[in-house]
């Protein structure tokens, strides 16, 4: 690590505008999966905060508990100990103000695009007509106008993931939880969707918690990148990303961007203890 | 299965050639008619005994479809029960698995004792052989749901009934149909075997009669009718599947399991 780099100076010094309220507060969260066969210590004393409108990414090796953490935050899974609160209220049941996007689109094969986007509305038993309007405008926003009546298998992987994003947004949740949402897509489609996501985030002022194992993607998208250690997952560093917005692909080649990615790569490598993994950071 | 001119013409030509070869070889080697009659004899038997064949075919059809219908209703209900009730899964399911391992047609003589000589003992056997493929496939289809979908439902406070209706049931349809296709063909076999054991009507009974009188042509005609009957039922299911679950093609199914 080169301590003189601008990125290093920014390291862990995440300064908040005091006027921006705290939205997600995670304190000392521990998660242990116990079964008859074995015990898995998944998360180890995780603490961080997410403020309204933040774009926060979680990076860490596979199996370090990122998905588990998202589930705990959404109330789908209880923490073994520690505290998670959203909007000042302790989370003890599934939240209804979150939208979720997963690594695979998980669309219903028997429903049309619009039917899939409307699924949360159906489950929540909300009144349909206004949301149908909303669903259509979201699809328009991601460039899927005219595809409303098509079935998932008629769409490409990138288009399916766009539908999945619309489904997460249709009930207008405050928080968007995204678990490696573009990880299964090719690099070009992923870039496209990253830009689209930023555009939507910018327009709708959502709070996004974004899991990825792509370091560049994390830096490109986020205000803060939270770097996690191998299992049991701990927070190694909270790295504020001080790059101007709106972000553009060209920034990826700028010096500061590279510093950030090198720094994160080095942290991940040193925490995993595999010297080979650190190669990228020495260049 | 795709139907096109080439797909139909090729097997048709092959089939006609096979019949011609059969006729020629039987003539050439002077094979006795009770061992292998020429195809012409089959045609004669078919036209001469058409009404009798029709009457007995109807009996077998009713037995098979009756048994199948019963297995469908009870099989799907039982599958839903097993998926939702741990108690059912722990108690009746193992019993069902043991039953599954038995050759169902071996129950035919017992069924005569238990339910009698007539239609119902045949329906019972057709039911028994058709029940398992439907249960096994439907259970898999109901369970094999992406866990993320269930998370989505929970986040939006979807009810358990909604999850069943909007996710599990449609998800199970392609699997259910895979089971149904196996079951409907098996139910015909079940009905025939039951008729072999004890009956005074139906195509199984008629095959035995033809055998006693060394009427091999008639026996072969009945076999062909059975093939067409099974095939017609199978295609009927296939058509229904395309109507009710057109997305089946996108689903990797477990067929078999009989
Ligand atoms: N329901 C569960 N029961 C037992 N172990 C689990 C369960 N869910 C996750 N784990 C374990 O917890 C660890 C973290 O998993 P996960 O959160 O999926 O990691 P990540 O998303 O970072 O790859 C893994 O070792 C995984 O096997
Ligand atoms: Mg994961």
Blueprint of the fold:
The complex is a heterodimer of chains A (283) and B (258).
Chain A: H1 6-10, E1 22-34, E2 39-51, E3 55-59, H2 66-74, E4 81-86, E5 89-90, E6 98-101, H3 113-117, H4 119-123, H5 128-141, H6 157-169, E7 175-179, H7 187-204, E8 207-211, H8 215-221, E9 224-228, E10 235-240, H9 255-272, H10 279-282
Parallel strand pairs in A: 3-8, 3-9, 6-7, 7-8
Antiparallel strand pairs in A: 1-2, 1-4, 4-5, 9-10
Helix pairs in contact in A: 8-9
Chain B: H1 5-29, H2 39-48, H3 50-84, H4 86-101, H5 108-115, H6 119-143, H7 147-155, H8 160-197, H9 203-212, H10 216-244
Helix pairs in contact in B: 2-10, 3-4, 3-6, 3-8, 3-9, 5-6, 6-8, 8-9, 8-10, 9-10
The structure holds adenosine-5'-diphosphate and magnesium ion.
Description:
The complex is a heterodimer of chains A (283) and B (258). Chain A has helices spanning 6-10, 66-74, 113-117, 119-123, 128-141, 157-169, 187-204, 215-221, 255-272, 279-282, and strands at residues 22-34, 39-51, 55-59, 81-86, 89-90, 98-101, 175-179, 207-211, 224-228, 235-240. The longest helix of chain A has 18 residues, at 187-204. In chain A, 35% of the residues lie in helices and 23% in strands. By secondary structure, chain A is α/β, with parallel strands linked by helices. In chain A, strand 4 (81-86) and strand 5 (89-90) form a beta hairpin. Chain A has a six-stranded mixed beta sheet, with helices on both faces. Chain A has ten helices and ten strands. With 258 residues, chain B is mainly α. Chain B folds into two domains: 1-31; 38-257, Orthogonal Bundle (MetI-like fold), CATH 1.10.3720. In chain B, 79% of the residues lie in helices and 0% in strands. Chain B has helices at residues 5-29, 39-48, 50-84, 86-101, 108-115, 119-143, 147-155, 160-197, 203-212, 216-244. In chain B, helix 3 (50-84) packs across helix 6 (119-143) and helix 3 crosses helix 9. Chain B is globular and about 75 Å long. The A-B interface holds A 71, 74, 76, 94-96, 98, 100, 102, 104, 106, 108-110, 119-120, 122-124, 151, 153, 167, 171 and B 146, 148-149, 151-158, 162, 166-167, 170, 173, 245, 247, 250-251. Magnesium ion (MG) binds at residues 66-67, 179 of chain A.
């Amino acid at each position: 690590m080169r301590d003189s780099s601008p990125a290093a100076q920014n390291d862990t010094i995440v300064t908040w505008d005091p006027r921006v309220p705290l939205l997600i507060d995670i304190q000392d969260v521990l998660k242990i999966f116990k079964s008859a066969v074995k015990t898995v210590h998944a998360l180890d004393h995780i603490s961080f905060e997410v403020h309204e409108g933040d774009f926060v990414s979680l990076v860490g090796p596979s199996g370090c508990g990122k998905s588990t953490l998202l589930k705990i935050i959404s109330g789908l899974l209880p923490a073994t100990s520690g505290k998670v609160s959203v909007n000042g209220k302790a989370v003890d049941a599934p939240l209804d103000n979150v939208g979720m996007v997963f690594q695979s689109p998980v669309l219903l094969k028997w429903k049309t695009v619009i039917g899939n986007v409307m699924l949360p509305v159906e489950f929540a038993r909300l009144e349909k007509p206004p949301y149908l309007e909303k669903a259509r405008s979201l699809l328009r926003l991601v460039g899927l106008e005219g595809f409303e009546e098509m079935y998932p298998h008629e769409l490409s992987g990138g288009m399916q993931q766009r539908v999945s994003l619309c489904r997460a947004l249709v009930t207008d949740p405050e928080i968007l939880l995204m678990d490696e949402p573009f990880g299964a897509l090719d690099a070009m489609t992923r870039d496209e969707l990253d830009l689209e996501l930023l555009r939507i985030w910018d327009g709708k002022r959502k709070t996004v918690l974004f899991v990825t194992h792509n370091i560049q993607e994390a830096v490109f998208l986020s205000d803060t990148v939270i770097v996690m250690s191998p299992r049991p997952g701990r927070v190694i560093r909270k790295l504020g990303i001080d790059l101007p917005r709106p972000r553009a692909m060209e920034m990826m080649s700028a010096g500061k961007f590279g510093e950030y990615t090198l720094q994160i790569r080095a942290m991940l490598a040193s925490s995993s203890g595999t010297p080979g993994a650190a190669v990228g950071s020495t260049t | 299965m795709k139907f096109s001119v080439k797909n139909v013409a090729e097997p048709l030509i092959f089939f006609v050639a096979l019949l011609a070869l059969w006729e020629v070889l039987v003539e050439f080697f002077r094979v006795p008619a009770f061992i292998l009659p020429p195809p012409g004899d089959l045609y004669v038997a078919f036209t001469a005994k058409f009404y009798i064949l029709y009457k007995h075919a109807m009996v077998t059809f009713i037995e098979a479809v009756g048994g199948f219908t019963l297995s469908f209703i009870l099989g799907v209900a039982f599958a839903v029960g097993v998926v939702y009730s741990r108690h059912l899964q722990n108690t009746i399911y193992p019993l069902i698995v043991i039953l599954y391992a038995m050759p169902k047609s071996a129950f035919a003589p017992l069924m005569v004792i238990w339910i009698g000589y007539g239609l119902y003992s045949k329906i019972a056997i057709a039911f028994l052989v058709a029940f398992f493929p439907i249960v096994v496939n439907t259970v898999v289809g109901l369970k094999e749901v992406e866990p993320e979908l269930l998370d989505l439902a929970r986040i939006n406070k979807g009810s358990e009934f909604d999850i069943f209706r909007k996710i599990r049931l449609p998800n199970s349809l392609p699997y259910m149909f895979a089971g149904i296709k196996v079951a409907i063909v098996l139910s015909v076999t079940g009905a025939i075997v039951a008729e072999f054991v004890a009956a005074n009507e139906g195509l199984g009974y008629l095959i035995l009669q033809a055998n006693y009188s060394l009427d091999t042509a008639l026996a072969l005609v009945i076999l062909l009718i059975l093939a067409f009957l099974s095939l017609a039922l199978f295609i009927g299911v296939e058509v229904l599947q395309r109507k009710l679950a057109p997305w089946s093609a996108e689903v990797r199914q477990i067929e078999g399991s009989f």
